[in-house]
Amino acid sequence: MMVAPSGNIMATIEQTAERPSIAPVRSGRKYRFVEEFIDLISSVRFGVTLLIILAAACMIGMLIMQQNVSGFDRYFAELTPSQRLVYGSLGFFDIYHSWYFNALLAVLSLNIVLASIDRFPKTWASVMKSRAAVPVRWLREQASNAEFDVDCSVDELAIRVENSMKATGWKRIERAERQGTLYIKGQSGRWNRFSAYPVHVALLTIFIGGFMTAQMGSTGQVPLTPGKTTDIMSDTVATLDRVNEVTMRLPFTLKATDIQQKLIKRDGSLSAMNTIDWITRFTITDETGTHEAFVQMNRPFDYRGYRFFQSSFTPIGRARTITVAARPAAGGEPELVTIPRNGSAKLSDGTTVGFAEFRGNFRIGREDPNEDTSEYPNPGAVLSVTPPQGTAITAYAFGPQMADIPAAKNPIAGYTYQLTDFEKAADQHILSVQRDPGATVVYVGFALLCLFLLTTFLFSYQQVWVAITASDKTVLVTAAGVANRNAATFNEKFLRFVANLKEQKI
Known about the structure:
Elements: H1 6-18, H2 22-41, H3 44-63, H4 72-78, H5 81-90, H6 99-128, H7 136-140, E1 144-150, H8 154-168, E2 172-178, E3 181-188, H9 196-216, E4 218-224, E5 229-238, E6 243-263, E7 275-286, E8 289-296, E9 301-303, E10 306-313, E11 317-328, E12 335-340, E13 344-346, E14 352-359, E15 380-386, E16 393-398, H10 406-409, E17 415-426, E18 429-435, H11 439-458, E19 462-470, E20 475-483, H12 487-504
Helix pairs in contact: 3-6, 6-9, 8-12, 9-11
């Protein structure tokens, strides 16, 4: 340590005595507070704490049903008033869009950036300014070390050491000499010391994508009924004591062309336990034209940043197709025709039979829109029958429960009609709609995170030193090596390197 001359010391003391003593103290406290605050928010411990809190918030979001999930209104109704008050006050019903969740992401992102900036110079210096000449005593203290004598010249041994290092995989070879000892250093995977920074970039990418979704994304549900058009989606918003429904207009219109439900047991109900798959076909119309869309249970559809996927269905029994037996009133064999929803079929004499309506529980009069008819207790179809060169007449085709009532035996256009079979389908399929502008960014972030984590833990930064000291009779070789991870694998590699050197000494 250098000490200033006594004259300079006295001058410094005199200058200090002339200044007010209060100002430097205040300034020092202020700067110390700023430094301590920056040290806190850039510390690894603070970042880990934020990650734990963020994980706890995500766990709450998984345990408490979120308001944009199908069935939330029923879940909300089952909660006690105190639960509704507490969960609503804390924003647990929409936690991923809450202010404190976004604040956690922002502070954690700041912590990652500051920690990277704070530690990068040290990491750079430790890697780029690593010395080849180190104390031999330090080499002997390493976990992976070896020491032996070699009967050859120093120059010959140095060439052997460099060749063995290259053959083992340590490519960056350096030489240095200090106090009569020749040092040879080999290393590999220097980039691994910087692997934390790509991981930080991947995490920040994920956070940015999540923030984009939270601020610019939207979710909702759209019920689709075959033949009907809509451009409205609805969403559920929970307040402290009630659930409200809000509607949003889509930038395009949707029209359902077909909905289908594949059942496990054909004669069973429309329940989810008896369903293999839900299929929805619809069209999307906007300023660019009309586009076909198709959604299955595990096959969503993406359009203009919106994702459509199956959510639920209404438990009102309908039919996708019906099979009707048309019996001539004058006698003869009945004709079987299969008619698709909103379609028609022709009989042999040119009579057109149209599929107008289907009910899972048929009654004379209006249908109850709130009745669950997914079990099909009394199926029946309303037909529109048009004789050749005639006008349309309403007819009915009933199942076996109502096959003998007068309306079923009353001839229409020369035929009586009986419902013999039908393909079950719900009245509506409800699609979940999600606009997720940050989805691609999040996917890229997770892909980068997986890639960088794999490369970080599968590879390591390895350094090997060999100190060659010549004596009167032999040459003393002291070798040691370190790795920042995968120590067991590195030790095996180091032992093979030492064994190779010992074999070459003979």
